[in-house]
Design a protein that fits this description.
This protein folds into two domains: about 290 residues, no CATH class; about 110 residues. About 30% of the residues lie in helices and about 30% in strands. The chain has six helices and 17 strands. Helix 2 runs antiparallel to helix 4 and helix 3 crosses helix 4.
Length: about 425
């Protein structure tokens, strides 16, 4: 999808955004019904308007958990950052902040609620080496490293084999006999010690059982040396097999679970964004003529906190409505920011125009690709209006169970379509 989008219009930028520079992006949806977005270079200069980064989604994050991967438009399919967006966890709570909200009307038609959503930030193994913002293919360096590894393994195996041969020659020179070798190859039959004694070269009797035990010990030593050499050869073969494989590990194996915590085996996570919402919901008349009611939810308090590489950072915004007796939903057109990391502004388009998300990444940001994608997720997917839509559906179900006739005007069939 990224290739199709980034291939239209201007040629994409070939470099990557680097730390220490200010970067400005304008993020726009790839299509009217697309769930993927392209970040265009919005810095003043010759490259302004060129596609730069691609935020590829694996589904509609409004309704379910999913992920967003960050890819350069010049090299679609190569992933640097993955944001795992967890599910929206809803629960009914006892309202303390808005007790006056329940003094008017029927309290049975009102609910206080809270929601939480977590975003995991994962840095993926770099598919290419980046030097001064320019991607350098890593295939050659990787090939050289594997070649050295295979050569080293082969050299070690050869050394082990040579050592085994020297040990064998030494054994033959210091008294090893063909008879002992024959005993080694015959099998593991045991004979009582002292029986079938045979004279040695000087005419003295010699216990065959003792000779056999000595031969077995030497045989075990040889077998161990051979096994070690074979293991080294297997390791070299496995390394060669791995170098021919282009498959990558599935990054979807470590999505957040229902409680927003990462599953076991999570790798590469460098940060976590936790968004908490508190609000109220009630049944309101939406059609006075038919006296039709619907559940309406409003978020009155929003907290966004980022834990990134050991630092705890607060997302600044103006979404709280705790001091309002009759709060209303906030519009999508909002400003957000984390000091020293980014600023982002959501700009709503006209009736027939696309929305634009303007992101400014600060020079002090640790990783511009992490900062830009995180800013996008906050402005677009973490807006309280999306949580209000989910809360309204949940609250409608709860209220309908408490007051079965509450939403009956206009058709009882609507209750059957309500989801948890």
């Amino acid at each position: 999808m990224g290739a199709a989008c980034c291939g239209e219009g201007r040629a994409p930028r070939q470099d990557l955004p680097v730390k220490g520079k200010k970067h400005v992006f304008n993020v726009v949806a790839d299509g009217w019904f697309s769930s993927s977005y392209t970040a265009f270079d919005d810095n003043e200069g010759e490259t302004k308007g060129a596609p730069w980064l691609y935020f590829n989604h694996d589904g509609d994050l409004n309704k379910q958990a999913g992920g967003i991967v960050v890819e350069p438009c010049a090299n679609p399919g190569v992933t640097y950052v993955r944001l795992g967006v967890g599910p929206s966890i809803f629960k009914e709570v006892k309202d303390v902040q808005h007790s006056e909200h329940f003094f008017m009307g029927d309290y049975k038609t009102k609910i206080a609620w809270s929601m939480q959503r977590v975003v995991k930030i994962r840095m993926l193994p770099p598919p290419v080496e980046v030097k001064d913002g320019e991607p350098v293919p890593k295939a050659k360096a990787k090939g050289k490293g594997k070649a050295k590894g295979k050569a080293k393994a082969k050299a070690k195996a050869a050394a082990e084999a040579k050592a085994a041969e020297e040990a064998k020659a030494k054994e033959a020179a210091t008294g090893g006999t063909g008879e002992a070798k024959d005993d080694e190859e015959e099998g593991d039959e045991e004979e009582p010690e002292g029986e079938h004694e045979e004279p040695d070269e000087e005419g003295a009797p010699k216990a065959k059982g003792k000779a056999k035990g000595k031969a077995k010990g030497k045989a075990k030593g040889k077998a161990k040396a051979k096994a070690k050499a074979a293991a080294e050869e297997d390791a070299a073969a496995l390394s060669e097999k791995d170098s021919d494989s282009d498959s990558d590990e599935d990054e979807n194996d470590t999505e957040p679970d229902e409680k927003g915590k990462a599953k076991a085996g999570e790798v590469g996570v460098v940060g976590q964004l936790t968004c908490k919402y508190e609000g109220v919901a009630e049944a309101r008349t939406v059609d006075s003529k038919q006296q039709k009611k619907e559940a309406v939810a409003v978020a009155t308090k929003v907290t966004m906190e980022l834990v990134y590489k050991g630092l705890t950072l607060t997302v600044n915004h103006n979404l709280n409505k705790e001091d309002r007796a009759f709060p209303s939903s906030a519009s999508f057109g909002q400003n957000y920011g984390i000091e020293g990391m980014f600023r982002v502004k959501y700009e709503q388009g006209s009736a027939f125009g696309k929305d634009n998300i303007h992101i400014t990444v600060q020079p002090a940001a640790d990783d511009p690709m992490v900062a830009s994608s995180l800013a996008f997720v906050i402005a677009y997917w973490m807006h309280p209006k999306r949580m209000e839509e989910i809360a309204a559906r949940k609250c409608k179900r709860i209220l309908a169970e408490r007051v079965p006739t509450l939403f009956s005007i206009g058709g009882l069939g609507t209750l059957g379509r309500l989801g948890r």
